């Protein structure tokens, strides 16, 4: 019984790993694309988008450096 389960898993392992690697690649690619600006923006809108992103990242890094409040 146990040998049959192990054999089944080892036989189908290549068919399981390939889709998991593909999904991991797609997830990583989606996170990369999410950081890019929208393609339909004009030059002025693009500059505004970059300024907003810089402001958010600056605010995030400032808040990360603040100590936690004591109780």
Structure description:
This protein is an all-alpha fold and 71 residues long. 79% of the residues lie in helices and 0% in strands. It has 2 helices and no strands. It has helices at 2-34, 43-65. The protein is elongated. The model has no long low-confidence stretch (mean pLDDT 84).
Helix- and strand-based class? mainly alpha
Q: Sketch the topology as an H/E string, one letter per element.
A: HH
Helical fraction: over 70%
Unreliable spans: none
Task: Report the mean per-residue pLDDT as an integer.
Answer: 84
Q: What is the oligomeric state here?
A: single chain
End-to-end distance, in Å? 58 Å
Please give the number of β-strands: 0
Question: Helix count?
Answer: 2
Largest sheet: none
Silhouette? elongated
Residue fraction in strands: under 5%
- Spatial extent as radius of gyration: 23 Å
Summed up, what is this model?
By secondary structure, this protein is mainly alpha-helical. 79% of the residues lie in helices and 0% in strands. The mean pLDDT is 84.
């Amino acid at each position: 019984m146990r040998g049959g389960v192990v054999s089944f898993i080892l036989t189908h392992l290549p068919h399981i790993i390939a889709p998991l690697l593909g999904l991991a690649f797609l997830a990583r690619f989606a996170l990369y694309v999410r950081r890019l600006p929208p393609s339909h923006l004009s030059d002025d809108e693009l500059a505004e988008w970059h300024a907003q992103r810089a402001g958010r990242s600056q605010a995030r890094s400032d808040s990360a450096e603040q100590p936690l409040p004591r109780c």
